[in-house]
Amino acid sequence: MSALPAAILFDFDGTLIDSAPDILTGINLLLDEENLPKLDLAQVHQFIGDGAPMLVTRTFAAVGRPLDPDSVPAMTDRYMAIYESLPADPGCVFPGVAGTLASLRESIPLALVTNKPERATHAVLRAIGLDGLFTAVVGGDTLPTRKPHPGPLLHAMAQLGAAPARTVMVGDGANDVTAGRAAGCRVVCVTYGYPRMPVEELGADRLVDHFHDLPAALADLALQ
Ligand SMILES: O=C(O)COP(=O)(O)O
Ligand SMILES: [Mg+2]
Predict the structure, then answer these.
(1) Is 77 known to sit in a ligand binding site?
(2) Residue 18 counted as an annotated binding residue
(3) What angle do CA 56, 200, 209 make, to 5 degrees?
(4) Which domain CATH number covers 72?
(5) In what order do the strands lie in the sheet with 110-113?
(6) Among 8, 44, 160, 180, which is most buried by a count of CB atoms within 10 Å?
(7) How many Å lie between the centroid of ligand 2 and the Cα of residue 32?
(8) Alpha carbon of 49 to ligand 1 centroid (Å)
(9) Residue 223 CA, ligand 1 centroid: distance in Å
(10) How would you class 22 by CB atoms within 10 Å of its CB: exposed for 0-12, middle for 13-18, buried for 19 or more?
């Protein structure tokens, strides 16, 4: 990449926000309704990143009552109703995120590409004061495909008018890297998220330990 990116696409859970505690609260309320035992935070970290239906599927398998595939959509709807009824913790934004995004946005259009369902994504963005920063927001149910499919990234780039070769995807897990590569983007991963495998093995172009290191990583990519 010979210049600063034409656009930056961001993952949400594990990259911009430490959403696992709020997700755990919602999942445990659902399990309580079903008279099932609670999950702990370490389990939820392992279950986030592939969208709400997969979160619910993994949860019920973990507590010993695997769901019939036909019952996953209704159970997911119930989970999302609970999750959306809970106020998102404004303190869940990772350090450095708000200031860095505000500064990047002055010169580069930003988009959010998450596997979290779109309506809940907008609600959380409002609750944490990050709404208005993103020119495009693509959720896990916005399109028929979700990450690791490149479709949501291509959709966001089309909305931003940005060429993939000049766009950077910033995420925390394998889905972000796979989707970013398939879409033709460069990829930066944060090392503090919910990766489910060693971050060094994700295959990102750059790793950042802290969100405020992102502009330097972008500048470093631009020198290549
Ligand atoms: O799995 C989810 O619901 C969201 O995960 P993501 O924001 O990391 O894509
Ligand atoms: Mg993530």
Answers:
(1) no
(2) no
(3) 85
(4) 1.10.150.240
(5) 136-138, 110-113, 7-10, 167-171, 186-190, 206-208
(6) 180
(7) 26
(8) 4
(9) 31
(10) buried
Closest residue CA from atom 1 of ligand 1? 49
pTM of the model: 0.96
Identify the CATH number of the domain in which residue 95 sits.
3.40.50.1000
Instruction: Identify whether 81 is part of a domain.
Output: yes
Within this chain, do residues 13 and 28 fall inside the same structural domain, yes or no? no
Q: Which residue range forms the structural domain that includes residue 201?
A: 7-18+91-222
Tokens 């020198």, located at residue: 223
2, part of any domain = no
Q: Closest ligand 1 atom, CA of 12?
A: 7
Domain boundary at 64, 85, 106, which? 85
List, for residues 46-58, the tens digit of each pLDDT value: 999 999 999 999 9
Domains in the chain: how many in total? 2
Residues in the ligand 1 pocket, defined by CB under 6 Å: 11-14, 48-52, 114-116, 140, 147
Query: Which ligand ends up closest to the CA of 12?
Result: 1
Residues 199, 100 share a domain:
yes
Residue 150 lies in a domain: yes
**What crossing angle do the helices spanning 174-183 and 151-160 adopt, rounded to 10°?**
60
What does the alpha-carbon distance between residue 30 and residue 159 come to, in Å, rounded to a whole number?
36
Query: Binding site annotation covers 213?
Result: no
For the stretch 99-151, pLDDT in tens is 999 999 999 999 999 999 999 999 999 999 999 999 999 999 999 999 999 99
The ipTM, to two decimals, is 0.94
